[in-house]
Write a structure and sequence with these properties.
The protein is an all-alpha fold. The chain is 96% helix and 0% strand. The protein contains one helix and no strands. Residues 29-48 are annotated as: Disordered.
Length: 48
Amino acid sequence: MKKLFAIAAVIGMLGALSACNTVNGMGKDVQSGGQKVQDAAQDVQQKM
């Protein structure tokens, strides 16, 4: 029974770690998109 609990705990920790990497990657993608929007807004502002 203890062995089963230990295996489940390890699988749970691995799932949590992969979720952190996914959220981190998504944050970088959103940041990159925001930077492109900001650059486009500055280009428009300079043309005015």
